[in-house]
Predict the 3D structure of the following.
Amino acid sequence: MSDLFAARSQMALSLAFHIVFAVIGIGMPVLMALAERQWQRTGDPAYLDLAKRWARGTAILFAVGAVSGTVLSFELGLLWPRFMAFAGPIIGMPFSLEGFAFFTEAIFLGIYLYGRDRISPRAHFTAAILVAVSGALSGVFVVIANAWMNAPTGFTFDRVPILASDVHPLAAMANPAAFPEALHMILAAYAATGFGVAGIHALLILRGRTAPFHKYALRLALLVGVPAAILQPISGDVAARHVAVAQPAKLAAAEALFVTQDHAPLELGGFPDMAARVDRWGVRIPAALSLLAFHDPSAQVTGLDRIPADQWPNVPVVHLAFDVMVGIGTYLALVGLWVLLSAWRRGAIGRAHFRALAIATPLGFIAIEAGWVVTEVGRQPWIIYGVLRTGDAVTPMPGLVVPFTVITLLYVFLAVVVTRLLMRHVARSPQ
Amino acid sequence: MTLAYLLAGVVMIALTAYALLGGADFGGGVWDLLAFGPRKDRQRELIAHAIGPVWEANHVWLILAVVLLFTCFPLAFTAIAIDLHIPLTLALIGIVLRGSAFSFRAYGDSRAAGVRRWGRVFSIASLITPLLLGMCVGAVTSSAPWDAAGPGTFRSTFIGTWLNWYCASVGVLALAAFAFLAAAYLTVETTDAELREDFRLRGLWAGIVVGVAALLVLLLAGTAARSMQEGLLHSTWSVPLHLATLGVAVTAVSALWVRRWRLARVAAALEVAFLLWGWGLGQFPYLLPPNLTIEDAAAPQATLEGVTIALVLGGAVLIPSLIYLFRVFKSANRTIESP
């Protein structure tokens, strides 16, 4: 394993691990706040129980999110010092703002978790709201920093990117990828958390648990997850149209489009044959890619043939990840619509819905992981698109396979522990 | 005074807050590990109650310091991240284990065996992490050549920079200071007279260790961190600073001795803050002695201005929130029910 590959693997693992907890840190506070509000409005103790149990679960996940986020803030430098030397002054602004947003989130989470008997119900509810708002904001700021790596703006540099000059932090924050990425990620966080929680309770109901607790939980979780899932395809469209223009290599890899063409088809599934430069065994929908990427069936879409081969991302990985993301996104949106329509027409949902929801439990998170694979692997070989190559940014520290192995073991261990604790936590919920 | 100096000062403030708040949480873990005698379970409970509501917020000071460092002083951050890859990675593992284990114990595993196991992980990580972080600080202050100075061997660049007696003494000082802070704070956290006596004794011992470790650091700095030692001994502010540090140190220990708990808490915090600022002043205007000054390491002016605005905006939200947090949980001695 080369040092570069070890560093990339460690970064990928750290991000993949952290993102799950970060997403829950954005989504769960909304659910907590909703349960808290219902408890204060209705006085139904099942809502109080729900708020407390959600808070307990969130506390564990938030702590792991906080420490794994700390790891990332160091790893940026530990693994990619040349990147940080260049990018730090340009994108430090969103990171600083994220620091404050996260700080606010941590403060009010502490107040919410431990303050129930110490402050007024109104202050307690406000704390929950502030956790939700600052959680979302901190997500937005971090994604803005990542968006800059995809669409770098706000600086100039001499051929070799060692130090940037003419730096404009605000222009860097206002990079064209910022809005599409941040919107897509926040909706994804709500959809994944909402469907994740809804799925757990749907499963418990299917297993015969009848307490109103589960019905309430399901309803609140769907209230967050369903609108997000239904809106997500629209934000995906915004993101895809941006990528089509700004990062044609990423779109070409995601769609396994080897030849530049108008009326470009959409490739569903299949496996890119890199030697023959075709996508095999996929389902082809004529002109659909042109339609999606440019809202014009005759538009020309740039294929990989226009990209120098040394600037290709890993096509099979990006293509597979893209299909997984889109497939799951479609499933969640359809299930969401179906649940919504049934609930609206018949006032209730049945076992078939519960089954569809139970299946959806992990899917939102898988889609998020896949989406980040598209974003990050799809940007390679660049760490800053068109400016700095990942291979030029890596630390000179040798033997990086060692920290990679250690961090992998640590995170696998934590993942097992967290899963077991959560399963026990869920199992103990009311019958 | 330039913006770069101002922002370096803010980094120091963030580090001081991390030491005084997050450091005390590490210290709590140390006393958890060293809990003994008939009241050891009650000691552990008190520590968990004191840390519970605030540790996540306390922890963020470190993130803030790191973010400010890489934004405002990218060259220093880069050099530190390259040369101190090993101790920083180890410290991160400690941070991850400490935080996760604490929350697993507090919210997750309510069986006795689980509580014991996670308590052990939490406390051991609380012991090792400050040692490593202190060693990194030691490396920053020492006159070892940094990555920027040219290629060295693996041993000289990635090991020798931090694995030496001087850095070890700084690590011990950090650990002792955190344990001392925690003991002093914990006497205020409880109304239980017996527990207060337990932590009074621990505080007195730790206070002495802090003094010894500080002297040791100063002594060992003679070869390893010469410019730092020069700064500490021969500046215009040297005598007043050392007298002030000595003053609060004696106050802290005597206040513990005569059971003036609140005074002891304040004096202990001041003592640790003075030690930290002694370090900062000692190496001023260098960020990484012997070559990199604050101004050399600074980001472009536009970045510094942007960050300053972000700090003002963020501070306007952060400071009232923090005051509220500490007023809710640290103003009275009511027991807090964990969720």
